[in-house]
Amino acid sequence: MKQVHVEPTQQVWKDPRAIALLMAATLTVMANATISPALAGLEEMFKDDPNVLWLSRLLVSTPSLTVIICAPLAGVIADRYGRRALLLVGVLLFAVMGSAGLFLPDLTSMLVSRLGLGVAVAMVMTAQTALIGDYFVGDQRSSLMGLQTSARNFGGFLFISMAGVLAVSSPRLPFAIYGLALLMVPFLWRYISEPARHTGGARKTANTEDDGAAAWALLLGALAVLQMLTNMIFFLMPTQLPFFLDAQGYDSASMTGAALGALMLSGGTAALLYGRIKARVGYSGAFTLAYGFMAVGLMLLTLQRTWSVFLGTAAMGAGYALAMPNFPAMALQVAPSSRRGMAGGVLTSSVFLGQFLSVFVSIPLIAAVGFAGTFQIVATALMCMALVGLLVFIWRSFRKATTAFVRLEN
């Protein structure tokens, strides 16, 4: 397997390994949302099925359930047997299970294939996160985390747009988009090599890195909980925005598509800047900006104006894009190298668990206080989270300044 050496000063996006991992990152957004434009057509195609209303809607969310369950197991496999094979098998399984809807005869069999798709997503996301930790360090790793979020946003925008065009001809055609994953396999095969610690006898000494396991496990757990909460809040956009806009008298279908497009584009752009922002203000500063943007975005939505909808969703997208790279970057920093697969698996589960729980938390809250009240409550919580981040940033800046002053005096 060809090894690629990149000087520390070289920009990370020039590394073919980074390009390969960014290509794999686009698959995660493709997993759930790509077939959304086809749901109405599938409902019409299988209208004789007595459970068509439930089954057609579950096609989107079902992969999340198997991701939640399988991602930690995929992490254990990645740590014990290696990342490369897990990634390659996951991409192949993704293409097969994702495109199966092209020919499967009914919604029930499609639902089963979507469960398999979730297994593939768990494998790809877990292996990809671990490999980023294995290949890159410091600013390169932080920059790649931002580029990963950007790739997911721009990839999601592209794939959903393609699905919308294809769904006009047939509701089955959007499933063909999953087959694009096969085009990535040769590139992944060539440039993704197994890290040295997972070859030969290196596995025998992997357990020596478990010293202080309780400390890093607690930090990983805290990151997973915060990431879950962040995703619960962010998922208000795709799940509740259509109903909010409908209640305001907008054409919810066209307005939602345009608003979510603004969200993805702003998120993709903000993520490109993450590496520079993190280098200047650190993790605490990035969290402060992220939750501040998200809070402002929700408050703008409560103004119930067309311009405020677009600005609000754009702010939500930018904030989310600045928050998400922090979690894997911090987790890879604290986790032992022999446990990066497990760290990636836990974080992957927390993302999809937050998405899954979002609906069950938001619907009762909206029923109690309405959309505007819900957005205000959540915005207040986000401002508190931003304030905590700001206090940590000030404290760390003060410590750094004090230390520099003491050294100067000595």
From TrEMBL:
Residue ranges of the TM segments: 20-42, 54-78, 85-104, 116-138, 150-169, 175-192, 213-237, 257-274, 281-301, 307-325, 346-369, 375-395
Keyword Transmembrane helix: yes
PANTHER family cross-referenced by the UniProt entry: CHLORAMPHENICOL EFFLUX PUMP RV0191, PURINE EFFLUX PUMP PBUE
Principal location class: membrane
Protein origin, superkingdom: Bacteria
Record protein name field: Predicted arabinose efflux permease, MFS family
Lineage: Bacteria, Pseudomonadati, Pseudomonadota, Alphaproteobacteria, Hyphomicrobiales
Secretion signal, residue range per the UniProt entry: none
Residue ranges of domain Major facilitator superfamily (MFS) profile in the record: 17-399
Keyword annotations from UniProtKB, A to Z: Cell membrane, Membrane, Transmembrane, Transmembrane helix
InterPro entries in the record: MFS, MFS_dom, MFS_Efflux_Transporters, MFS_trans_sf, Sugar_transporter_CS
Species this chain originates from: Pseudovibrio denitrificans
Topology in the lipid bilayer: Multi-pass membrane protein
Pfam families attached to this UniProt entry: MFS_1
